[in-house]
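Researcher: Here's the sequence for the chain we discussed earlier.
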Amino acid sequence: MDKEMIELTNVNKKYGDFVAVKNLSLKIKKGQIFGLLGPNGAGKSTTIRMIIGVLDKTEGSIYVDGIDVSKKPDQVKKNIGYMSQKFSLYEDLTVIENLNFYASIYGVRGKDKEKRIKQLITMANLNGKEKVLASQLSGGWKQRLALGCALIHRPKLLILDEPTAGVDPVSRRIFWKMIFELSNQGITVLVSTHYMDEAESCDIVGFIFKGELLTVDTPENLKSTENAKTLEDVFIKYVEKLTGESIDTSFKSLKFIKGDD
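Model: Thanks. This is the structure I predict for it:
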């Protein structure tokens, strides 16, 4: 039985002469929480968009649950729940209307639809907010609703593209508790983030910088190998090695503020 939920081999994405993703090879096992880490513009979202089949790769191969994304994109999408940073909600629809809409998109109907919506509302603690417009929800509540919409069709793989950006710390913590529970139920989770404290909770993390995958390992192994206290320290070390510049030197130019020569 194939143990990989996601398998990328020598994947490249080019826009003319610009290489957004370079020779990326990656395997994510079923049931794992995998953190794809990197600064803005590193290639995280581009990689995710190729995995879910909305962006064509230039070279290489991408398989999701043993299915070639290039050959059977529609079949792959049925197995994926996707949640973006912008939440993909319809602001002029209520909580229940958003859930009903996404259920119809994924072909979930009848009693099965009603059962799943009730379960997701309970999971997201949205009881009593069913008739509230999405536009009137706070960032944390929108986040939970968006997660519910992504799970309506019971996907095997949940992909989260910077899902906690702009959300308060309490909502972030609640959100991650929900992710842990989903993982315990056997759902594979791929999450992109630049919050290194969140990455500490992942089973495996991969650092991507300027379209290149630098390393893949457990958070503990990476910190031990680099003799670092946090994953943020590890990432900064990798960036400094690649750029040949110390992060500290970038602040020397600020001395002019206080008039230093």
